[in-house]
Amino acid sequence: MTISTFSPIHQLGLTGILSLVLSLTACAGHDAAAKDQNIVETNLIQGVQNMFDEIYESGTPVRFEQIDVSNFVLSHLPLGTPRENIEQIFNSIKSSKTVASTKDTLVVRDNRGQAMLDPDARSVVITFSFDQNKNLQSIEAVHMKNQ
């Protein structure tokens, strides 16, 4: 006596199996893409935090001096970066806040310390300008004493 076994895979047929494999692959690809996006965002946030560390370590402004640090910012946020990415990054950094936002510009201020409590309180103010496609067109960044 021969016992024939049919598994659910046999009942699906070749078309059903192919469809199932493609669905599973698509799900895995979506999860991988989401993980990759999270890794990229985490790396960008860490990169911007490192950028602020570099700026604050590069020197201390004296009195009302404002030091141009645009090159530091451009090395971590290249021209063409989408506005949405920049907003997400700076919203994730606790010491930073958006102080002005228009259609074409975004002004972010990062504060290290408070002027009344910290004798070395300093700020970095970054003005981002965007093109009509909402991509980064130019940067103006200054490092100054927190006043």
Write the layout of secondary structure elements.
Elements (H helix, E strand, L loop, with lengths): L7 H51 L7 E3 L1 H7 L6 H10 L3 E6 L3 E8 L9 E9 L5 E10 L2
Antiparallel strand pairs: 1-5, 2-3, 3-4, 4-5
Helix pairs in contact: 1-2, 1-3
Question: How would you characterize this protein structure?
Answer:
The protein has helices spanning 8-58, 70-76, 83-92; strands at 66-68, 96-101, 105-112, 122-130, 136-145. With 147 residues, the chain is α+β, with helices and mostly antiparallel strands. A five-stranded antiparallel beta sheet has the order 1-5-4-3-2, covered by helices on one side. A hairpin with a 3-residue loop joins strand 2 and strand 3. The longest helix is centred in the first third of the chain and has 51 residues, at 8-58.
Regions with pLDDT < 50 over 5+ consecutive residues? 6-22
Helix content: 40-55%
From the alpha-carbon coordinates, what is the Rg to the nearest angstrom? 25 Å
Please state the overall shape, judged from the principal axes of the Cα atoms: globular
Mean pLDDT value = 78
Order of helices and strands: HEHHEEEE
Largest sheet, order of strands side by side?
A: 1-5-4-3-2
The major beta sheet can be summarized as: 5 strands, antiparallel
**Percentage of residues in DSSP E strands:** 15-25%
Amino- and carboxy-terminal Cα gap: 93 Å
| Class from helix and strand fractions | alpha+beta
According to DSSP, the number of beta strands is: 5
Count of DSSP H/I helices: 3
